[in-house]
Amino acid sequence: MNSFNFNKTHLKKQTFNIELCHHLTLNTLSHYLNIQLLSITEIYKYIPKISIIIIAYNENPIIIKNTLQSILMNTTLLLFNNNIKEIILIDDYSNPPIDDNQIRTLSKIVSYQ
Predict the structure, then answer these.
(1) DSSP codes joined into one string, 6-33
(2) 64-to-14, 29, 33, 104 alpha-carbon distances in Å
(3) pLDDT tens, 45-71?
(4) Torsions phi, psi for 2 (to 5 deg)
(5) What Gene3D superfamilies does the record tag this protein with (predicted)?
(6) Is cis: bond before 61, omega within 30 of 0?
(7) Do 16 and 25 touch, CB atoms closer than 8 A?
(8) Cα distance between residue 93 and residue 25, in whole Å
(9) Helices within the chain (DSSP H only)
(10) What is the pLDDT of residues 1-30, one digit of tens each?
(11) Domain extents for the chain?
(12) 39-64 residues labelled b (16+ CB within 10 A) or e (exposed)
């Protein structure tokens, strides 16, 4: 039925099934959650909160906007289940600084420094 070979008894708070850990790397996490683990909704409470940090230096605002859109599209289930705590965009002293008005439509700026 699924390629992971585990059941709900294998999942315990604060621990993961070893086989599950081997399959859920950072690069494949959202892919596996969106496709193969869709039926196991309890899995989300065992996934720790995730912070995504994007550091940009003299990056085109369109690329930053596309990056944010890609994150939002590819982590839908994680966002829906409140597993993503925050997405932080850091402007590493770009010249000129990133214009936050071009990105504001996709984001809620909590703090700006």
Answers:
(1) --GGG-BTTB--HHHHHH--TTTHHHHH
(2) 34, 22, 25, 11
(3) 777 888 999 999 998 888 888 888 888
(4) -125, 160
(5) Spore Coat Polysaccharide Biosynthesis Protein SpsA, Chain A
(6) no
(7) no
(8) 31
(9) 18-23, 29-35, 61-74, 76-80
(10) 444 454 555 555 445 555 555 555 544 555
(11) 1-47, 48-113
(12) ebeebeebbeebeeeeebeebeeeeb
Q: What is the pTM of this model?
A: 0.56
For the purposes of burial, counting CB atoms within 10 Å of the CB of 21, is it exposed (0-12), middle (13-18) or buried (19 or more)?
A: exposed
Residue 35: Cβ within 10 Å count:
10
Joined together, the tokens standing for residue 15 give: 């621990």
Residues 62, 67, 70, 76, CA torsion sign: negative
The token pair that represents 63 in the structure block: 């690329």
Nearest to 89 by CA among 73, 78, 75, 61: 61
Q: Report the number of secondary-structure helices (H) and strands (E) in the chain.
A: 4, 2
Which residue matches tokens 């289940």?
A: 81
